[in-house]
Amino acid sequence: MGIIQKINDVMDFKEQFVDKLNVVFGDWALFVYDRPYKIIVCSLLLSLPPAIGFVPPIAKWVDGADNLYSLPVSEARNDGIIHDHYFQDVISQANFIALTSEPPGQNLLTWDMLEWVRQVDDIARGNRADPTTGQIVALPANEMYYPEWFQDPSHEGLEPDKKWLRYDDMCAPDPVTGCKIQSVFEMGIDDMKLMLDEGSAPELWMFDGLVFNSLRKGFCPNFVFGDFEKKNCTRQVPTTLISQIFSPDRYTELADKPGYAESNIECIYSVKAMRFTYEIWDKPEFTARELAWEWNLYNVFQQNEYYGPLHIGAMAFRTRDDELSKSTAESDDVIFVVYTFILLVTYAAIINFNLDQYRSKALSSLCGSLSCLLGLYAGLGVPALWGTVFTPTALVCPFIVMGVGADDIFVVIGSYALAYGEDTPRDRCAVTLRGCGVSVVMTTVTNVIAFAIGTQTQYLSIKTFCIFTLFGLLFSLIYELTLFFAVVCIEAQKEEAQMACICGGGLSSDQDALDRKKRYNIFDSISTYQVVSVLVEEGVKDDSEFLMELKDPIVITEHRFQWMNKVHKWWIDFSKRGNYWHAPDVKKDDQLFSSANEALTDALPASGVALRGNARMIDREESYIKFMPRPLILDRFDLHPKLKADVYRMEPPHNVGKTWRTFFMKHYCHYLLKPWVKLLVLILFAGNLGVSFYGLTQLQQGLEMEDLSPDNSYLKQFDHMVNEYLSEVDLPVEMFYVGDDIPWHESRVIETLRRFVNVVNDDPGNFLLNDPLTRMADDAALKPSLMSNNKTEFNRALQRAISDPDSAYKQFELDFVWKGETMMTFRQQLLPMGTTGSQERAGWMLQLRAYEEEFRQLPITNTTYPLDPHFYNYLLVFYESDITIQKSVISSLTTASMALLVVTLMLIPDLSSGLVVIIIMFLIDVAVIGYMSFWDVPLNMISMVILVISIGFAVDYSAHLCYAFVNAVGPSRDVRVAEAMVLVGTPLFHGAMSNFLGIVMLGFSTSYILRIFFKMMTLVVLLGISHGLILLPVVLGTWGAMAQAVPVSSNTLHAVNDEPVIKVRRKIDPESLEVRETALNDEIQIEHRIEPIDLSPKDNTPIPLRR
């Protein structure tokens, strides 16, 4: 009992908390109503300070894929920092040109084609003018681009030694060829022309998979060439070259041709595509020069996509960042914000407009949209004041804020429309906010929590987007409760005053019904939920198939009237039954009543006691009371049919939303709640769940860098060429070793290194690991010195081998790092096999790290020594994100779900209904993730944050309906579902439409990021609203929690919303069919005060009592 009592106490506290919130919202509504113009002015003044955040010195813009879409702290980034520390003097940036024929498929390895290819190479190196514009890829030799000249003291007062800086003046140095370039010409095609017979077709010779030029520098043809063809051949090769590559047993020196040897090799004779690589120095003092040269290179080839028989694609090192920034700053995308605002304003105005200008809410809708816009404006400005930087993803924020904000507009206006029965516009506005305030705040809080969790991500682009959107939603709510609601109050006053409008019109309500309302004050006895219940009952009474038997039980004490014990027993028996009410006959004084309500109606005048909504403050001290999942519902009295008709007919024919409510009541629910339709819906959504789980197994992960380029980007052509022809091997990765005291001169270290190289080379994910140290250790001339275990001899022999101009190892000179005369570390070049996606590359990186960890754990023995290998490539920081994305998604979704579970259970009175919201939320998220694979949306940091956001939206689509169902007063689950749909179905549907209209313009963007947002948010909206308006009503109509009976310990009727507890002191004579004013001074005790209650009609007309 102790645990149950504590749970009961928690439930009571939760219910009281929600009640207090309702009271607070009602008080706020009255506060706004009494001073609407002041509230409007204050809300507009509130928008002034955020403007400071848009001032350029305060507002900061950050772009670049490295900054936006990679982890700021990761193992790959740390490896990059270590790499730059060791090799700071030789850091370079690679720029690429891809060539194919036009039309594609022709052989580029012909002498005629090579002449065109040479012209492209000359243009890139600044030796030939651009044929289209006459420009050259060169920079003026001024102080900005030629700092090494002007900073030299010996050059003071002298003019630079050159007028223009071309590629050869700023290239990354190469010990053999001068500039670090990979191309068919650097591979020695010109030398081959001299060695081949006259008239022979061009070809390149491969020695164990590599092509060597006459300077004995090796190149990997699989990286330089695409879709090339080779054949086995026997060729006469210079002895100076082949002796450095093959052992003597693999070639035969020619006696008749001194200096040449014959060997069996492979010959490349056909090439369909080529890749040229131009590397430039990456030093801080040369940053301006690098950026300018890269921009010139890219710009020239962008204007020369077709050059003679060639098709050209180019990518400079920073081009993708530039294209990414450009794609998210296009005027077309910015103007989409304006289009979205116009769409939302137009939609809201159309839905809330009607020809009865007294009740048209078009102006309120316009001000509601303005509130969203002001909330967006403040949500961007305030974080900027705190130092939050603007990123390209912040452009998505307006679409989300305006779409979500419009949802609240429909909820508030819908609640106002159903409060038509209040006597004064002031009361109507109070009831409006009291009825929908909790729902609006609950959905906003859930969205804010989702975005708050999104701010915990390490990705800058996602963090800033979530921060701006979070503040945008908060300020949007503030402006909705001030500016927007103040306008609603003003229009309420005008509606009551019947102020003239351009469309004219008079009283559009049923005047006779309104007169009876004023006489009997019907709406003092029933709540908004009871109004909806009457609307449903009266609206479907002609539909015999859908009509339910509406007989409502009322709980009062068991000691006052003898027949009440039977009522209590019937109530408890019912609570153990199912869906429908089956009230037994109750007999009193030989009079047979058809229901307990009729007996109670006979005992107490129906229109005289103020009872509203849910029963609270239930006495739970009786030993036989068990924990109930929800509090007792004190339903409406069974009104006289004539009064019910008045309630139904009092709603103005042009009341906002009436047509939609009629649709949900008479058509939508009529078919949805049929048993066979319920079964069909459950089967379809079960199938949908199965399809979603299948989609989960097909979901791809990772962010492809080429996707970040806009559709109209020139980079798309380069990416297509690479994927089509040059994808056999991936971009090179540099591998190096960390440690200041590694005894490289010891043979055990060399042997351990050899084992590591063999392990990496044997991995099917790697094409080649080119290790200079083991190659030199295997060289017969160098092996005695390098394997001598003598530190001095080792370092001297190594230094001679890489510095001798005639050495085959001269090409590795810049790959070794020295401290004095001691070798500290060196780097190797790893060529990975081509991969089909970032997820596969992430798997490759994990496997490589496993090898690294294995060799770090090696014991120190006579034959082994632990090594600490690291590897680095610019793209690895993005692969790191792909590795952690799954863990991040699970963590974020779990955190968001738990947080929203707490909020939902706090604000929804019934525990089981709160759990239903969480289950629906889970189903929506599973469906969204599953359907991502069918729309080519991978799981990456962009889609991840939208998944977190989708939890908030999923709660939106289910919480409103569950909250309305819990508070509904119908006699069966189906009827309560119908009442809930009438109450919130319209704002839910229009809210979903406004959410969709808020993001629909993103679908027309050329930006990959914005289109991903469009696809994801479309899935969230469509799947969310289908689960919320189709599956959830079926679930609630089948298994929804109904009111449970709870006996009370005194002759007490309980009320809610801080209404007083009413204790009846004297029984009213049920035989009195006419109640006169002098007979109606029935004493009641209200909060220990004795006061009379006036139950008489205002014109002394007898109240028709049901018998």
From TrEMBL:
Annotated TM spans: 334-355, 362-386, 392-419, 431-453, 465-490, 676-696, 889-908, 915-935, 941-966, 987-1010, 1016-1036
Entries under InterPro entries matching the protein: HMGCR/SNAP/NPC1-like_SSD, Patched_domain-protein, SSD
Position of the signal peptide: none
Species this chain originates from: Gregarina niphandrodes
Protein name in the entry: Patched family protein
Lineage of source species: Eukaryota, Sar, Alveolata, Apicomplexa, Conoidasida
SUPFAM superfamilies linked: Multidrug efflux transporter AcrB transmembrane domain
Ranges of residues in domain SSD: 333-490
GO cellular component labels: membrane
Keywords, alphabetical: Membrane, Transmembrane, Transmembrane helix
Highest taxon in the source lineage: Eukaryota
UniProt record similarity statement: Belongs to the patched family.
